[in-house]
Design brief:
InterPro entries: Arg_succ_lyase_C (IPR029419), Argininosuccinate_lyase (IPR009049), Fumarase/histidase_N (IPR024083), Fumarate_lyase_CS (IPR020557), Fumarate_lyase_fam (IPR000362), Fumarate_lyase_N (IPR022761), L-Aspartase-like (IPR008948). The protein has 461 residues and is mainly α. It has helices at 16-22, 25-28, 32-48, 54-74, 85-97, 110-146, 166-191, 210-216, 226-231, 234-261, 288-311, 326-349, 354-362, 368-379, 383-400, 409-415, 424-427, 429-435, 444-457, and strands at 151-156, 159-165, 268-269, 351-352. It contains 19 helices and 4 strands. The strands form 2 sheets. Strands 1-2 form a two-stranded antiparallel ribbon. The protein has a two-stranded antiparallel ribbon with strand order 3-4. Strand 1 (151-156) and strand 2 (159-165) form a beta hairpin. The structure holds arginine (ARG).
Length: 461
């Protein structure tokens, strides 16, 4: 007795603790749409191959539609005795259509069934990430186009380095997101083979048509090895790796917004809609959404590590450890979707305080490299020597408390006699960014060129 699905050889049913530790229905009910879809593809194939009668195939397909309609309205019932979504659905099907329901599981095992369902689910999650990231890229190129000329300080070590444009800075994230998208696309290609028909581990003696089910489910074809098909979860790990890398990019962008929103910076006014207040300090507007994106990136990477640790050391083929594959993937997917949406809103709606950015770019002697470059070009001084001369000029400007371009010419000449009045045209922040027109550089013309290419790639032109 005991379990109606597999209890034939058992004298006793499972203990309460066995039922509880075994039950995956509390989380794998999220697979119900994929499970119904895969079952319908399977039974249509069983009918076409005359493994079940046409009549039974049709009865089962209609029954599955009815189960789906019930789930849609009432949700999926959670009965631990039925273990998982696969047995929950089959059990309800049997209640609805009677003994014919028992023919659905012909030439199939829960092992290839869950591998199929989960691939379909992860494939959808990849597509969802693509759509979300495309929206984020659109927001980035739109704001970058608005700010191709807006000058801000560029940093290394978070110390003022050289002036850049805000458009250039935003386009840096466009590039990162483009690579994230290519990682999801690449992972999707590898995922897109159907494990259905691998059965428990060895394949099946029934004359199934794996091409047919693969095609019905939108796969590029069937997998080649039945043991591999039910044993590996590298498609889910590929997804989690792409998600982790993407979350890491989002976290860095979030971190920049947090810094920029801080009063001593004051580079941005975050949208009210993505900020919160303080219960005690009335003046506060906190960047909580950005902080949570930064926090979520850690959790997403935790999900990746979780599944890696589940899979390491498992012998072929299926082991029940693998049931633990789903919670980290589900968690990562929902955290990632939220993170992408939050950063898209932040990029689209933040007010950039370009006056504050421009003023900050004047601080910290950001055009010192331009002075050194000028000495190289106009006076043919080797760069290392020019670097040294410029260092002396920075030291003097620091003592006087003025920017480089406000040092009197005679003082500059006293440092090196080869300096003349033309140098001042090189020392403004505008001249500095305009000069950097190397491919991929921060010159406004270069930024506009990159924005135009990106808009074309996104189909915005
Ligand atoms: N709920 C199971 C899982 O998610 C389905 C596969 C069960 N297979 C088995 N041989 N017990 O992994």
């Amino acid at each position: 007795g005991g379990n109606q699905m597999w209890g034939g050889r058992f004298a006793e049913g499972p203990s309460a603790i066995m039922r509880e530790i075994n039950a995956s229905i509390p989380f794998d009910k999220a697979l119900w749409r994929q499970d119904i879809r895969a079952s319908k593809a399977h039974v249509a194939m069983l009918g076409a191959m005359h493994i079940v009668s046409d009549e039974d195939a049709v009865t089962i397909e209609r029954g599955l539609d009815q189960v789906a309609a019930e789930y849609e309205v009432n949700g999926v019932p959670e009965d631990w005795a039925l273990e998982d979504i696969h047995m929950t659905t089959e059990s309800r099907l049997a209640e609805l259509i009677g003994p014919a329901a028992g023919r659905l599981h012909t030439a199939r095992s829960r092992n290839d069934q869950v591998a199929t369902d989960f691939r379909l689910w992860v494939r959808d999650a990849m597509d969802e990430a693509q759509a979300g990231l495309e929206a984020l890229q659109r927001a980035l190129v739109t704001r970058a186009g608005e700010h191709a000329d807006s000058i801000m300080p560029g940093f290394t070590h978070l110390q003022t380095a050289q002036p850049v444009t805000l458009g250039h800075h935003l386009m840096a994230y466009y590039e990162m997101i483009a690579r994230d998208r290519s990682r999801f696309a690449d992972a999707r290609k590898r995922l897109n083979r159907s494990p259905l028909g691998a059965a428990a581990l060895a394949g099946t003696g029934f004359p199934i048509d794996r091409e047919m089910t693969a095609q019905a489910l939108g796969f590029d074809g069937p997998t080649a090895n039945s043991l591999d098909s039910v044993s590996d979860r590298d498609f889910a790990l590929d997804y989690l790796m792409a998600a982790s890398q993407c979350a890491l990019h989002l976290s860095r962008l979030a971190e920049e917004f947090i810094i920029w929103a801080s009063q001593p910076f004051g580079f941005v006014a975050l949208p009210d809609s993505l900020s919160t207040g303080s219960s005690i300090m009335p003046q506060k507007k906190n960047p909580d959404a950005a902080e949570l994106v930064r926090g979520h990136s850690g959790r997403i990477t935790g999900c990746l590590v979780s599944l890696m640790m589940t899979m390491k050391g498992l012998p072929l083929a299926y082991s029940k450890d693998m049931q633990d594959d789903k919670p980290p993937v589900f968690e990562a997917a929902s955290l990632l979707a939220l993170s992408i949406a939050a950063m898209t809103g932040m990029v689209a709606e933040t007010r950039f305080r370009t006056d504050r950015m421009r003023a900050a770019a004047e601080l910290g002697f950001a055009t010192a490299t331009d002075l050194a470059d000028w000495l190289v070009r106009q006076a043919d001084i080797p760069f290392r020597e020019a670097h040294h001369i410029t260092g002396a000029a920075v030291k003097l400007a620091e003592q006087r408390g003025v920017p480089l371009d406000q040092l009197p010419l005679e003082d500059l000449k006293a440092i090196d006699s080869r300096i003349d009045a033309r140098v001042f045209s090189a020392l403004s922040v505008e001249a500095s960014v305009a000069a950097r027109k190397s491919h991929g550089g921060t010159a406004p013309d270069q930024v506009r060129k990159q924005v135009a290419l990106a808009r074309e790639a996104l189909g915005l032109e």
